[in-house]
Amino acid sequence: MSKPAIDLVTLQDGESANIVNENIEQLKSIFPEAFGEGGVNFDTLRQLLGDAGAVDEGEERYGLSWHGKKKARQIALTPSTGTLLPCPEESVDWDTTKNLIIEGDNLEVLKLLQKSYAGKVKMIFIDPPYNTGNEFIYPDNFQDNLDTYLQYTGQKDRDGLKVSSNTEGSGRFHTNWLNMMYPRLKLSKSLLQNDGAIFISIDDSEAPRLRMLCDEVFGEENFITNIIWQHSVQPKGYSGIFSVHHNHILMYRKSEDFELMSLERTDEDNKAYSNQDNDPKGDWRTGDVRNALYRKNLKYPITTPSGKIINPPDNGWRWSKETLSSKIATGEIFFSEDETRIIRKIYLADLDGRTPETIWFAKDSGTTRSGVKELKATFEGEVPFDTVKPTELIKRMMKVSGVNAGDIVLDFFAGSGTTGAAVFDTEQSRFILVQLPEEIDDSKPHGITARKLGLSKISDVTKERLKRCSVNKSPSNAGFKVFKLSSSNIRAWNPDRTDLEQTLLSHQEHLIEGRTEQDVLYELLIKRGIDLAVPIESRNVSGKEVYSIGYGVLFACLDESITQADVENIAQGILKWYGELSPSSDTHVFFRDSAFSDDIAKTNMAAILEQNGITHVRSL
């Protein structure tokens, strides 16, 4: 019988979800005979799929194609080895809040969120950068790991890479934009619940390509609508061109499990209803009895009480003869005084809210000007951001997509933080916001204002706005935790082949110098697939700090020294706590690898824990 051992966590263990491997495993479970020692046998797979397995290898096919699409797909599938560093000092109500603000390149962040939040987000709203042709901030050149983020934050330089220039002469407007959007949409889809939906705001420039891109990513059958939002009401003073007053908001569902919800009815919606005949069912208005589509089987004449004949409309009636006769008997359908027309009553009492329309007018959903007004009120007269979506717009999306208490709303182009402010106002759900720490342009009025307020990055505006909005909010959804994208806490093996002896000595400690225990704990959460908002408790056991994460789903002792004499006490302390919490899932326990005085101490720790039911013991 082999001795219990503590396996060392490697940098590969610290990767985000590997989507390719997950896809292969799913395919293997359905078609095991298509897999051999060499991998996938595509000839066998085609046979198993029958006619559906035919491969379209021709160049002429319908769809959206562009230079770099293959690479963009690969980028979405490449795991991240980064981490999210906790920043309690920049947060509000750190110990109680479930809201998250994450600073960093949203591509890497979306990858890191996969294990903890796949299938758990009810609604996504994004307002990505519009393709103006000269201020395109996301490059189309990505490298492994965190290169993109490091380039943006000035921590790394790359010759020849332009991140703020997309001149008209390049001829690659759409290509660059599509390469930026494709992997992010692919990753966002997997975060949605089956009954979830995504809303994407866009202008006329990229709306046609975004529609095709979303058809490919989410499925054409999951397109819900293209909402036309009236973002302004004031005419622009330019002659010879149309004054643009709208944006498109494309709405897609994750699957057919999604249910479109009605909006609340207003007095304006109900003004057409009355009850002049004292109908016991209450207020009503007239409605159509004709069928919108041609139905041959619903074309039949109707005889009035006095014997007059009313011929069917061209497309037929809305109901069968039996159903229509029943409605006549109950008074829901009646005849005009001269019995030449048949009239339907639509009762207000029968209506479950108001059906959402495809045009969202400013009076119902706000405008960019009202969004700026909200921001101005929050910052006491100052406006540190130029284009702002109104909270009413986001709240309307939340209503029609059925966001309820505890649901997660995600925005990975967070900007000024409108989505977070809207969630605060509803006081029911929680948010995850992601924003690049992009430097604010202080040559513009809003940039000057931001600098005056001490805000140098867009993410600073996001945090400061929500800090101010969080005041006087319900404790159940107030505050936010701040995290920042960074490289893993686990040291990568990078040997200096000219001095291997020194390399071996320098890699005895597997964790990055300068990182805190809290940094390591949150990387364990994100890499083990645990919600970043779960509680973390600590106890002092024989002078060593022991942490319980998520009510015992994970334990960790990251002390730098564990001797043979410490092993028994630490193990028994963990087991006692484990017994009190009785976690429903398998518990994992982590230690700092370099902390153990020798291999005997490490082996004994694993043995004691395993003998008492904890078999997943790892070292960092």
What layout of secondary structure does this protein have?
Layout: E1 7-8, H1 19-30, E2 35-36, E3 39-40, H2 42-49, H3 69-77, E4 82-86, E5 100-103, H4 106-112, H5 114-117, E6 121-126, H6 147-152, H7 173-191, E7 192-202, H8 207-218, E8 223-230, E9 246-253, H9 267-270, E10 284-287, E11 302-303, E12 309-310, H10 321-330, E13 333-335, E14 342-347, E15 359-360, H11 362-365, H12 368-378, H13 391-400, E16 408-411, H14 418-426, E17 430-435, H15 445-452, H16 458-469, E18 481-487, H17 500-506, H18 517-528, E19 536-541, E20 544-549, E21 554-557, H19 564-581, E22 588-591, H20 599-611, E23 616-619
Parallel strand pairs: 1-23, 5-17, 5-18, 6-7, 6-16, 8-15, 16-17, 21-22, 22-23
Antiparallel strand pairs: 2-3, 4-18, 7-9, 8-9, 10-14, 11-12, 13-14, 19-20, 20-21
**Secondary structure: number of strands:** 23
Kindly state the percentage of residues in helix. 25-40%
Which structural class is indicated by helix and strand composition? alpha/beta
Strand content: 15-25%
Q: Which residue ranges are poorly predicted, with pLDDT under 50 across at least 5 consecutive positions?
A: 139-145, 160-171, 499-507
**Domain unit count:** 4
List the quaternary state of the chains: single chain
User: How many angstroms does the end-to-end distance come to?
Assistant: 25 Å
Mean pLDDT: 86
How many helices? The count is 20
Largest sheet: 10 strands, mixed
Question: Strand sequence of the main sheet, in spatial order?
Answer: 4-18-5-17-16-6-7-9-8-15
Radius of gyration: 30 Å
Mind telling me which CATH architecture of the largest domain this is?
A: 3-Layer(aba) Sandwich
- What is the CATH homologous superfamily assignment of the largest domain? Vaccinia Virus protein VP39
Could you tell me the CATH topology label of the largest domain: Rossmann fold
Query: Which class of the largest domain in CATH terms?
Result: Alpha Beta
Shape: globular
